[in-house]
Amino acid sequence: MTTPANDFNGLKVLGLGDNVVDRYLNTGKMYPGGNALNFAVYAKMLGADAAFLGTFGTDAAGRHVRATLEALSVPTALCRIVEGENGHADVRVVDGNREFVFSNKGGVARENPFVPAQADLEHLASFALVHTSCYSHLNPHLAALKTASRLISYDFSYRWQVDDLIGPVAPRLDFAALSAGDVGRERAISVLRETVAHGCDLAVATLGPEGAVAYNGQDFVSVAPKPTQVVDTLGAGDAFITATLLSLVAGGWARGRRLSAGMILAAMERGSEFAAEICRIEGAFGHAAPMPVETPV
């Protein structure tokens, strides 16, 4: 039930939902990103048969994201293209640290929420795992998405701290990821217990420089970050989640199966290794483009 670190060939996975460009105000460059899109690209980098499904704007940002996915051979079947601004987030680097200073909260993807049609649900059924996020505006459809998919994972980011998400969302998930680097290990363990108690099979909290901790309803499993030369931490959490998930699915994880502590640890170790690799890349995964000249810097 184990798999070599990069042996994800033939594993079909889907990133469903958000895509953005991260616009670096200091350098005038924009990079493709977003939780669901990063998952699809990182899974492709790891050798999986990965695809993306979401909504693009028609501006320069949307065109750049679409062109990047095409260059990376990440399929975008059934994606929507809507007139208007693609999602973007403005980032400023201060003393080596990233500060998010503005977001249009998904742009056209927020203004025209993705409503899964029957064709979308049938498409989901062909993938071993579907990954989405709190920024994908899909919460009302999670029950249908879970029914249509073999496994569904969800990134709460830090929004679980400010929105009432755990109770409504966790029962509709197989896997949950929560950002908890600013609340400490004790609070993270509490929210992991809460998430699993609501019906999610496995929950993982990322703790920044303290690594990550997972809970399967029985065991708490911790992993430390791998030392690396940090160029940019953008996307590191998504990279950790992606490699962890691929390792679990390739190892035989299926809905309703309790994962052993050893299997979880091995997957999280692979996640930490891949996150360290991504920290050595500018942006979430490179592919910079100049910010449009009309964008204020």
TrEMBL record:
* Keyword set includes Transferase: yes
Residues in domain Carbohydrate kinase PfkB? 24-256
Any GO MF annotation of the entry: kinase activity
Query: What InterPro entries is this protein classified in?
Result: PfkB_Carbo_kinase, PfkB_dom, Ribokinase-like
Gene3D superfamilies this protein is in? 3.40.1190.20
Q: Which domain of life is it from?
A: Bacteria
List the Pfam families hit by this protein, alphabetically. Answer: PfkB (PF00294)
Quote the CDD domains the UniProt record gives: Fructoselysine_kinase_like (cd01940)
- Keywords assigned by UniProt, alphabetized: Kinase, Transferase
- UniProt keyword Transferase, yes or no: yes
Per the record, the similarity remark reads:
Belongs to the carbohydrate kinase PfkB family.
The protein depicted here goes by the name Sugar/nucleoside kinase (Ribokinase family)
Give the source species: Aminobacter carboxidus
